[in-house]
């Protein structure tokens, strides 16, 4: 297999893929915030939650659903800030994954990645990293 990457480029490709995978796993897991409610342990992320309260209309009380799941709709995400965070973090993870997979393909295909393409890809990774890390932590 011919490669269009230097040794540093191959290391960058594999580290990029590992970082993109970690970002995507973190995005999909509901453990961004941990706490307790109604004496039960709860956690939630941008679009997933575990152990959440639901109003039981037949008994007129609030009960805890002790399971993990995503919100029923985009509008069901608790606040506008969390909805924005979901979109921005998802876009950031997508950009990171796109660049990482392209870099991995550069390990196998000759003349796929030039110096200019590598610089542009690094810039996209920087933007993706700022989107997925910068916005998610501030909300």
Automatic annotation (TrEMBL):
Q: What kind of membrane protein is this, topologically?
A: Multi-pass membrane protein
Give the signal peptide, or none.
Answer: 1-21
Entry's transmembrane regions: 87-109
Compartments it resides in: Membrane
| GO cellular component term of the entry, any | membrane
State the Pfam families in the record: L_HMGIC_fpl (PF10242)
User: Keywords, A to Z?
Assistant: Membrane, Signal, Transmembrane, Transmembrane helix
Q: Which InterPro entries match?
A: LHFPL
Q: What is its main location?
A: membrane
The name of this protein is: LHPL6 protein
- Species of origin reads Menura novaehollandiae (superb lyrebird)
Taxonomic lineage per UniProt?
Answer: Eukaryota, Metazoa, Chordata, Craniata, Vertebrata
């Amino acid at each position: 297999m011919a490669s269009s990457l230097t040794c540093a480029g191959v290391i960058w490709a594999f580290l990029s893929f590992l970082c993109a995978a970690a970002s995507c796993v973190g995005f999909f897991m509901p453990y961004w915030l941990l706490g307790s409610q109604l004496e039960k342990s709860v956690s939630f992320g941008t679009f997933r939650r575990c152990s959440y309260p639901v109003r039981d209309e037949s008994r007129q009380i609030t009960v805890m659903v002790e399971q993990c799941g995503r919100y029923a709709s985009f509008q069901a995400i608790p606040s506008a800030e969390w909805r924005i965070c979901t979109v921005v973090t998802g876009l950031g993870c997508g950009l990171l994954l796109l660049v990482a997979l392209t870099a991995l393909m550069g390990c196998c295909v000759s003349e796929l990645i030039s110096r200019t393409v590598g610089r542009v890809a690094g810039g996209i990774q920087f933007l993706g990293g700022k989107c997925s890390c910068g916005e998610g932590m501030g909300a």
